[in-house]
Amino acid sequence: MNVRGTLAAIAVLAAAVAGTAASSALAQNAHPPARAKQPVMEVIHRIEQRVRTTRYVHVTRVDERAGRYEFDCSGMAAWVLSRAAPAAHAAVMRHNGRGRPVARDYHDVITAAPKNHSRGPWLRVARMADVRPGDIIAWRKPATVMSQNTGHVAFVVAPPQRLDRAGHRYLVRIADATSIPHGDDTRAGRKLSGFGYGTMLLYLDEPHGEPTGFGWFGLPKRVDFRTHVAIGRAVL
Fold it and tell me: Which UniProt keywords apply (predicted)?
């Protein structure tokens, strides 16, 4: 995978445009995620059902009764996992050691987790064929991106879709918090940020290996970056 449009993409991805209030229309997704009975997915669906306003900000402010969800990607991950998978959340908090985990912490904890059956709080998902709703995608910031963010973290909400016979490209439907919408995004066109659903591309050098790059905007716009992408599962 070649890095394309790097200068333009750096400007886009480095932007920290805090969004405005979102309406409950976020719940009306044209491509709804899988409705798995799984604790992580249950919390994400609860956000979808209750959200009235949402913004991408680097603090976490949530009022469920009012439908207010304000956080960044790692803030959302921490909020969801603290309710759905407390042991997995605690492991990331211990790794962080600063009280507020960031995207690179999720990447590093997942990368260090075992690939086989685990008695610990995390399992590393090493094959795209094994990825399922509720799994977490995380990466460290690519070297070509000029940003103070440490990377990104998101939740898989539907089984990945393989795009080529060899298995080098996959479309992945995700839920996350961002100020830069992905492809086929519930936030697009409304000047919204914060919680929502979107679609990304993941690239693999080896069909049975782990992702080695991502396309932030999915298929509609090819802006690709090379970096190790970790996929993990909270062990419940």
Answer: Signal
